[in-house]
Amino acid sequence: MQPLNQPNNSTPLVQPTKSGQPKELAKSNKLANVCYDIRGPVLQRARQMEEEGQRIIKLNIGNPAAFGFEVPEEIQQDVIRNMSKAGGYTDSKGLFEPRKAIMHYTQSKHIQGVTVDDIIIGNGVSELIVMAMQGLLNNGDQVLVPMPDYPLWTAAVTLAGGTARHYLCDEATGWMPDLKDMEAKITANTRGIVVINPNNPTGALYPREILEGIIEIARHHGLVIFADEIYDKVLYDGNTHSSMASLADDILFVTFNGLSKNYRTCGYRAGWMILSGEKKHAKDYIEGLNMLASMRLCANVPGQLAIQTALGGYQSIDDLVSPEGRLRKQRDVAYELLTAIPGVSCTKPAAAMYLFPKLDPEIYPIKDDQQFILDLLLEEKVLLVQGTGFNWPTPDHFRVVFLPNVDDLTEAIHRIAKFLENYRKKHDSKCNSVKDMGVKV
Known about the structure:
Strand order of the largest sheet: 2-9-8-7-6-3-4-5
Structural class: alpha/beta
């Protein structure tokens, strides 16, 4: 008798190649133009070096826990006490209590008309960014994304079948969005504008007039604004943050925020997405987002249990960014040490956890900045991310995370300075050799 599930003929279910080996599995074509160099090939090399026993100073990723920033005790304890409630699925949008707390938070940010049903909790903001793009874009649609950007935005647009068109954030104006360039990038296929404020990787904080200018562009062209505001409490020098969605109610805003940075809880994966403004014309899109939220069943429940306490409790981030706070001191040390290196300039960040220094191309004529970062890793055991990893068009920037303590940060930047000094000497030597041959440089 033929066994169950066995075809009547003897043809194998998986066809071997002529050599008898299974065919090689290739990644999806949808990944062809997707990159996330923050965790890219240079990081893989760093991991190999660590396995060999080498100590790497990592300035590549904004993970506060890795540098001794602990989750506030009150948040930890509330999650532990409520863990018995975390065994089952919740509503696909999230538990009522944390969504109610998020709704109250929107009111403190002066965002009008948000109800509990307008909030979707996700496994971090990252999941929700992908969800927002999957729910909106058809093949060939376009989204305006800042340049430089947090690369997940470009990747999410691409995976959804769209095209990211990068508008310039101008270093000469403190990394402010260039509104003329933004307007020039809009086509008939443009669906939305991404605004990352405070910005990663530059640390820029946008004033109200810039935000209102972007809103006017979105209003004129009928576009959605996607506002990534995950660093809205990590502010220095007395700066304040304006939520974009508080500045208008006649266009659709999708605002993203979460606990990862403000509350140093990256591993809790607790983020949220808020729909506000003109929602009537977006009913079909919102239905699609609800469908996608249902398909992943729900966000992790322990992370949801942290939200209400975090938003309603003591805001310990204020201590960290105060003039005597750890983050503020580390920002100042990193900025001063980096800008003291010949040929290195940097806009001092007003917010977030990053600097985005520039290397003078006359002094550092870099062709491949990923190779440059790899060489730095191999020679000085410091891990950074190259500027092109943030969709910056030229190989003359890199991102520095200033989360390590002052001693480690100082050591890392001294190593960077040493590497750059050697780079300058090699370049000067090559230039002199060319001059000796009578070639004009």
